[in-house]
Design brief:
The protein is mainly α. The chain is built from 20 helices and seven strands. The structure holds iron/sulfur cluster. The site of iron/sulfur cluster (SF4) has 15 residues, from helix 13, helix 17 and helix 18.
């Protein structure tokens, strides 16, 4: 048994330590080659350094320019778990050929091994999330009785789509787990400040107190707090947005999960136990289980299934560059209340929940025709839980429909009426969600019709878009809407 080289997203105990210990690497090139959010850099470095401190003598932590330099410095062969990106996989393959890496083990970071997904996908024409999720529930014996789902349905999505409670400015739930920073965080902050001053890094977004778990102990505490105090309220309002409540009842576990600190199975088992104890309702528990062993795992597998060129698919021929205000998270340039608040959230925390991502940021980008590959890169670097494998399916497949429907049956675009129903944004906005023409025309409402008009021919064969396309044909002022949105162009709304 040799030393195990663990990547920065393989930090929990289920990524087993080699008999001769562990190698952890802080590669300056990996940190600096993209404009990552400042807090993302902090979380990764803090997690790595905390793991090294926990392991003590069993860990060698090397700070080098590149991974290759670290391996040369170590001077002994290592074993690895499957890495989580094409770039890292190709590095590992080269190192395997040269004998520096002795073996590559299947990753324990997901419940289903890659080979088994390939078997499941077989020659299916489409690999749908719904089918995969059922397969996972049955295979893992989660919320099932025999071959039937508990409660008679596989999905309680319909119960989980409520807007925010009327008149509320916050959800009535206890606050999420908040970690306490320590000396390691202070050292990370100092390093990041210095490297930024020296021009080694050009991070985006603001620094701020650490909000997410980076150690096993913290991750377990965050899981426990969520399940005990917040899971019950999670389901009904999981799609709702309130400007005064960024976390709502979300778990905030994507960061520790994607750092490899929690085993996804222990996470869903704990949630199912809460249902069995009677401390959380089925709809909430099912919604959460779906996120973890359904969606998250599906996104992981389709990253490999669709191949490295998937993120460059562009079925709707969207070619606009991301404007500087969007790329640089300049929320102050934006007057539209929803986009302003969501972009501020990304700038301040590198995290907003799935609906602001999908129905505000993604919706906006689709309507304005942003290039899907550039947008994928933006989500990946600006979000604290973004990784190579996370964003292609979420952005190219789900939010931009750029894969022509290989993953989702319809584009996730909507006008201001959706945002108005699901949030408290519109009341305080200078735009009117009901208006599509004029100075106060909502850019999402007008943008929606302009999107349909631009993509009408490409979406024509899609059954689920038949009605919206028909409605578009009935709009007498459509030419005015289209001209207005063309004039608005890439300006911040
Ligand atoms: Fe957003 Fe339009 Fe509502 Fe303003 S009116 S908050 S731009 S959806």
């Amino acid at each position: 048994m040799t030393r195990r080289w663990l990547f920065a997203d393989q930090l929990g105990p289920h990524f087993r330590v080699g008999r001769d210990g562990v190698l952890l690497v802080e590669s300056r090139r990996a940190l600096s080659r993209r404009p990552f959010h400042r807090q993302k850099l902090h979380l990764v470095l803090s997690a790595l350094r905390h793991r090294a401190a926990e392991l003590g003598d069993a860990a060698v932590l090397l700070r080098t320019k590149t991974y290759t330099e670290a391996l040369e410095q170590l001077g002994e062969p290592v074993t690895v778990y499957e890495p989580t990106s094409y770039a890292a996989e190709s590095l590992v393959r080269r190192l395997l050929a040269s004998g520096v890496v002795e073996s590559v083990d299947p990753t324990p970071g997901y419940t289903l091994p890659r080979a088994e997904f390939a078997q499941w996908a077989g020659d299916r024409r489409r690999v749908r999330m719904e089918d995969f999720y059922r397969f996972q529930r049955q295979r893992l014996d989660l919320l099932v009785e025999g071959s039937h789902p508990v409660g008679g349905r596989w999905s309680f999505d319909e119960e989980n789509r409520e807007g925010p409670p009327k008149g509320a400015t916050r959800l009535d739930v206890p606050a999420p787990y908040r970690p306490r920073e320590d000396d390691i965080d202070a050292e990370v902050r100092e390093d990041l400040d210095r490297w930024t001053r020296e021009g080694v890094l050009s991070p985006v977004g603001e620094d701020g107190p650490r909000l997410f778990a980076v150690t096993r102990r913290e991750a377990l505490a965050a899981l426990e707090r969520f399940v005990t105090h917040r899971l019950g309220s999670f389901g009904p309002h999981e799609d709702a947005m309130l400007r005064g409540d960024w976390a709502m009842a979300h778990s905030l576990l994507s960061v520790p999960l994607n750092l490899g600190l929690l085993d996804p199975l222990e996470v869903v088992d704990r949630a199912v136990q809460a249902y069995r104890d009677g401390s959380a309702p089925l709809a909430s528990v099912e919604g959460f289980v779906r996120q973890v062993i359904g969606w998250r795992e599906y996104v992981w597998h389709v990253y490999w299934h669709f191949g490295p060129t998937y993120r460059r698919r562009n079925a709707l021929q969207a070619r606009s560059a991301l404007p500087a205000w969007f790329a640089e998270l300049d929320a102050d340039a934006v007057e539209a209340a929803c986009l302003h608040d969501v972009l501020s959230g990304v700038r301040e925390r590198g995290w907003v929940h799935h609906i602001p991502r999908l129905m505000v940021l993604g919706n906006w980008a689709a309507q304005r025709g942003y290039d899907p590959d550039a947008l994928t890169e933006w989500f990946q670097t600006r979000f604290v839980d973004g990784y190579d494998w996370v964003m292609p399916a979420n952005v190219v497949g789900m939010s931009q429909h750029a894969d022509g429907g290989a993953m989702a049956t319809k584009p996730y675009v909507a006008g201001g009426a959706y945002i108005n129903r699901m949030s408290d944004y519109c009341g305080g906005c200078r735009y009117d969600p009901r208006k599509r023409v004029g100075e106060d025309a909502c850019p999402f409402t007008a943008g929606y019709w302009a999107y349909l008009d631009r993509n009408a021919a490409r979406l024509e064969g899609n059954q689920r878009m038949a009605r919206p396309l028909q409605q578009r044909g009935r709009l007498a002022d459509l030419p005015d809407v289209v001209a207005q949105e063309r004039d608005r162009g890439s300006a911040a709304p």
